[in-house]
Amino acid sequence: MSASLESTVDLAWAPEAWLAAHPELSSRLVFRHAAARFAEEDARVVFLEADLGGGGDPFEARHPQRYFNLGICEATMLDMACGLAHGGHTVIAHSFAAFGVMRACEQVRLNLAYARANVKLVCDYGGVAGAFFGPTHHAIEDLAVLRAMPNLTVVSPADGLETVHATRAMLQHDGPVYLRLGRNRVTRLDIPRPPFELGRAALLREGDDVGLLAHGEVGVSVALDAAKLLDAQGVSARVLNVHTLKPLDEEAVRETAARTRLLVTVEEHNVLGGLGSAVCETVCSLDLQRRVLRVGLQDRYDSRAGSHEALLKGHGLEGGQVAERIMGVLPRTPVFAVESATRRD
């Protein structure tokens, strides 16, 4: 990674232009630069890392006295992070999702969530982004685990720009946050979007036949691809970017159910426990009377090595595969609309 990228554009003030000047950066690298830049505005921000820096980290280069690479000891990293947080710091703790969430789960539960520590747990390798590294480095159950922890905000940005906005938002938020990122995928969504706000889903595309609710780089990109393919077959798809899984924007789910005949969740996470489960819970609790098709990682571990794209295809996470599944279950006759308490812009 490069500690300093030559650019006359300020990432904080013009993130779109900054990203355009650095089209090669994946979201996990965009996050590093965003964290380093925003730390210039707040001296309380400290960055802890579990053996991922490897030299040349932009935060280390800009703020060497506030950067600590602790090695392969995720539990210790989170213990230290929570101690610093209780001392008044805003702490970023960075690791792989399989280790930062699963290996150090007890520390996340008791030290972050239970204690409401002002720690931002940021993890790469969400889903099967670890690809050839295999199940030890895949994180297909992290969202299910963390959604069930009280006090924790859970965020999964859709591309580089949203990663910048989410990084700023989580640093400004007082309390524990989990930010889930991928690995080497580079995503730049060239699509109008509303301002980023924690807890408020973003409408990316309007439609009245199918409601596609997605999160993360893979989920949102696949949902948009599927929407285009469905449109060519005369099926209008509404696409909702649910970047914050907790707290869930229930009103956005209600409104999408009111405007469409079928709800479809798309995510790079086990179909159990993630966004699919969250939407099903909302449909039941609000009595929305809509079928929910859950598209995501099947309930299995991938023991065979393969590229990220190959693994996603094996789970049916391609635009064409999703569109085909939707066409197979979409109600052919209109259903009664669910009343929406409010209509949002």
Automatic annotation (TrEMBL):
It comes from the Bacteria. Keywords: Thiamine pyrophosphate. InterPro entries: PDH/Transketolase, THDP-binding, Transketo_C/PFOR_II, Transketolase-like_Pyr-bd, Transketolase_C. CDD domains: TPP_PYR_DXS_TK_like. Residues 25-189 form the Transketolase-like pyrimidine-binding domain. Its cofactor is thiamine diphosphate. PANTHER family: PYRUVATE DEHYDROGENASE E1 COMPONENT, TRANSKETOLASE-LIKE PYRIMIDINE-BINDING DOMAIN-CONTAINING PROTEIN. Belongs to the transketolase family. This is Transketolase-like pyrimidine-binding domain-containing protein.
